[in-house]
Amino acid sequence: MGDKPEKQQVSEILSQLQRARRGQVRTSAVIAQQKDTLKRLIELTHSPHSQLKTIAAQNIKLYIKDFPELEDDAINAVYDLCEDSDQKVRKEGYRAITAVSKELRKWVKRNADVLVQLLQSDEPEEVEVVEQQLNEHLDMDTLATLNVLRDQIVPPEEPLEADDQGTRDRLRVLVLNFLTGRGKRHIINPHAPAIDGEAENALAEALLQVIPLLPPHEVETVVKELLIPLPSFSRASKQSTVLMEVILEAAKTSWKAETPPAGGRTSLPRTRIYLDLANELLQKGLGQAATFLRFYLTNFVSKAAQQSLVDDAQCIVIRHVADGLKLLLENVAGSDERTQIITSTVNGSGFLYATFLDLNPELKSWPSCAILLKACKLRFDSRQWRPSTDLLATFQSLLDTSSSHETLQMNKEAAEEVQSLIRPMLQSTPGPSTPATPRPATPGPSNVGKGTFSNNKPSGGRVQIKRKLDSELGRPAPSPTRTSGPMANATVDSRGDRSLPPHLGPNRGDRQRTKTAPSSTRTTPVASDAETPPKRQKGLVSEGSVPSLLSRLALAPGAIESKSDPLALVPAKRRAETEGVQQQTKRPTPQRGRVSSLHGADLHAPAEVGFSIKGAAARAKQPTPEAVGRGKQCETEKDKDVATL
């Protein structure tokens, strides 16, 4: 039969097709005739004549469904037509694939995979026909066809041979071009009512998985031309949040690869694609501003990161941080995460301000600078933050730059806003916020009245002020202890006054002068009219000694006769304790003419207040004979008083 002329063969096959179609009732004879016709069409696919191949391609679909035993032979014959040397025959073969899929839906997935392979054709006309057939497959079975397309763009898990990997890479590009080109309207528009349809979700999930494995420019194509136009990405959703996270993770990986060595600078040729994509998603409301800003604060808001970027890349970082911060500030609904991100941005904004000041005038984005300052002003007004000294200097530089004639000409409105934000912070902040140096605690009025003070000791920290009179009455003296705090600043002279009985202490005028004396100035002992008697040896006063009449009279209420002193109405013990506390912080000046009134009282015995008075004797001058005589006379009088008693 192959030896017959082409024209005769054409006439015979057309007559055979006509007889097969006439069988309205599928009798055994009709079925046999149709089966013979299908076999003849399969044979003609290998004919050397293009017309016969074309007839076969156009009519195989008529009988393939009725004879399952011939399906494989018929499908393979159609595939052979797609590889024919004649372009016209190949085009008919592409259409025959779709016709077979319509008759037998179980072949949709396999036929779609073949059509994807046929996208590699070098002829644009043929590629157009193949894409048309893919669109028809999308209309027939969207899920099955999208799964085929997804499998072609996802890189293989295992490495391939060099040739196979090259073919796979070319196919991925071709499929992406189809999805973002002629296939886009068949994926999006017809399925718009099914916003959360299974087919769309399958495609979105596949693309989200493949993004980390694609080059940056292919990621840009997928996101802008395919994912964002999908109905499920028309508003914020779980998938849009995942998309933002995937893009930022890809940007982080790319930034690590592009980080220059020490001293180098980079323009971020690959990372910038991801950064722009993330910012576009943010502006469309398809991502979280907190997630966006956290990424920049972690990776780009630092001195080292800013120094490793060229000016243009620095400008992009500042703009993007400001864009994210603007959305976060507009979201008035407070949350811990929002507050934390704003605080972190304010704390790291100093690096961005310094970078901003170094940029060329044409690269400065004053609106972005104003947004950053709004966050600082918000924190400043909350009284929870004050700018440091370095940041205040930076604010002053920003104020000066924004006030320049050149800046006002180019960005008058934004520059004036910057000035209005900076001035209140400069005027209300005298300096950096540093913690005040803690001062030693001083006794309050209530403690003074009680004759006690706080020395940071356990059990309330209360220490009784001992009077000199206790030793004169023969009471056992407690062992001296070292003290710290205000007691350590007491001078020898102040301790000498504290050991006096209350009615023998300085008069009111003397105490007034003592209070006005600076506590930080050491006083110099002033010589009195009568020199101080020699220091009595320790141990002369024993427990069994009898107190003198003068000592007992000093304790009697009637002995207090001084009416000029406001403390005269206070009992002697309380007044002595009060004076002792007052003298802890105020260093009195020794008074003239007061020693002779003691009548032999021991000025130099250790004051039992819990601290040492070593060196006090060295400051007292040697006694004169006159003073020694008066001292002996006092001792004689005391002996007479004891005898009388």
UniProtKB/TrEMBL annotation:
Residues 425-598, 615-645 are annotated as: Disordered. InterPro entries: API5, ARM-like, ARM-type_fold. Residues 632-645 have a biased composition (Basic and acidic residues). This is Uncharacterized protein. SUPFAM superfamilies: ARM repeat. The keyword Membrane does not apply. Residues 515-526 have a biased composition (Polar residues). Transmembrane segments: none annotated. It comes from Phlebiopsis gigantea (strain 11061_1 CR5-6) (White-rot fungus). The lineage of its organism: Eukaryota, Fungi, Dikarya, Basidiomycota, Agaricomycotina.
